[in-house]
Amino acid sequence: MARISCHSHIKGLGLDEEGNASDTSSGLVGQKPARESMGIIVDMIRSKKMAGRAVLMAGPPATGKTAIALALAQELGNKIPFSLMVASEVYSSEVKKTEVLMENFRKAIGLRLKEIKEVYEGEVTELVPCETENPLGGYGKTISNVIVTLKTVKGSKQLKLDPTVYELIQREKIEVGDVIYIEVNTGSVKRQGRSDAFATEYDLEAEEYVPLPKGDVHKKKEVVQDVTLHDIDTANSRSDGGQDVLSMVGQLIKNKKTEITDRLRSEVNVIVNRYIERGVAELVPGVLFIDEVHMLDLECFTYLHRALESSISPIVIFATNRGRTVVRGTEDIKSPHGLPADLLDRTMVIKTMPFTKEEILQIIKIRSQFENVELDDEALVHLGEIGFNSTLRYALQLLSPANYLAKIYKTNIVDLKLIKEVADCFMDAKTSAKTLIKEDEKFMK
Ligand SMILES: Nc1ncnc2c1ncn2[C@@H]1O[C@H](COP(=O)(O)OP(=O)(O)OP(=O)(O)O)[C@@H](O)[C@H]1O
Known about the structure:
Layout: E1 24-25, E2 28-29, H1 32-46, E3 54-58, H2 65-76, E4 82-86, H3 97-107, E5 109-133, E6 141-151, E7 156-161, H4 163-171, E8 178-183, E9 189-195, E10 209-210, E11 218-228, H5 229-236, H6 245-249, H7 262-277, E12 281-285, E13 287-291, H8 298-309, E14 315-320, E15 324-326, E16 334-336, H9 341-346, E17 347-351, H10 357-370, E18 374-375, H11 377-389, H12 392-397, H13 399-408, E19 413-414, H14 416-425, H15 429-444
Parallel strand pairs: 3-14, 3-17, 4-13, 9-10, 13-14, 18-19
Antiparallel strand pairs: 1-2, 5-6, 5-8, 5-11, 5-12, 6-7, 8-9, 15-16
Residues 6-7, 10, 27-31, 59, 61-67, 319, 321, 363, 392-393, 396 line the site of adenosine-5'-triphosphate.
Subcellular location: Nucleus
EC number: 3.6.4.12
Domain AAA+ ATPase: 51-354
């Protein structure tokens, strides 16, 4: 069963070519001004004019701040890094607050490495392993070499390769008809996809089809790899980490937070800067999204202020649903959104507004389709009412239990009676708060 998260229905900002938002598009409903402002930010990020800036998304709970930020990530695609954190993540007993922030900052800064490699590239037209008697005796046979013929638009070439390369070919599951390249220096083999000539007529396929390469089989090729600074830090924190950024990229391992020291980071920065100066690498400032930013304290804000001014800063997007509140880490300094005045001054604020009844109905409809919940009209209208009178989140959360009840009652359609039944089972936050106040009043009497 596929897992569905609360934002899975969001596929992008849903803007047209001129950057205007329609009522409902790409899973997003309403919030047109906020979506259009985000659209401008996407363009500025793409043209690299946004680094070191901060954006604050402010609005009441469940008005789509996180949803719009995730839509921005979808618009940016996977070549621009996007790192998402919730502010309370910084409070760990093992890792310093600033360390957590620094790690997320570096996850949001990408590096595009370009390397000119000498390769053999083409579509495999022949793949024949040659066997010989095992030189150590015994009955088995061993592979002495492998014959691979590669074809390009310009011509074809037969290569006689070492048995170790054959192992790599097997590991990459390469067959005749695949387009591959073999690096001359390292012997590593990379499968780029299946040749266009084998493309089928299916509407949906897992296979990626690539055109027949141009030029000679033996050539110099520019290979591009996208990594983040955090990837390089982690690769380097290994005891056997290499000295060369490019060689380290291939050795990415699991996170080992405590091993990445400030010294290591500054060493990585020096190497990265050298690569940038030589034109081998290009810095790609990405996006760091910090949700519930009012949870950060003064120490974190001071750190953020400094980090935003550094030459390699990503774009930072904050989100909060608080109005005027005390800045954490101070005695009683109140500030809008719980952000210190100087940091607030640096940010551009995007506002999200409460949804109308129509918009709430539309979102519930999209979600019910996404979660495969068949609602009848009355049930949909009633859920809309619930969403409008309590919160959108509460209405969305009732969908799954209602569907579950429907299964118990052996029906496929969730009707008004079922929605009323689940709404009786689970209380929303507002009703719960009112009940508690009443209880308190009774107690005081
Ligand atoms: N404009 C929208 N279109 C479609 N779905 C939306 C929209 N806005 C919010 N949603 C959905 O409503 C739910 C709540 O939204 P979200 O978590 O983004 O709110 P939020 O503003 O970040 O809330 P909070 O301030 O409590 O963190 C999510 O499931 C989200 O996908």
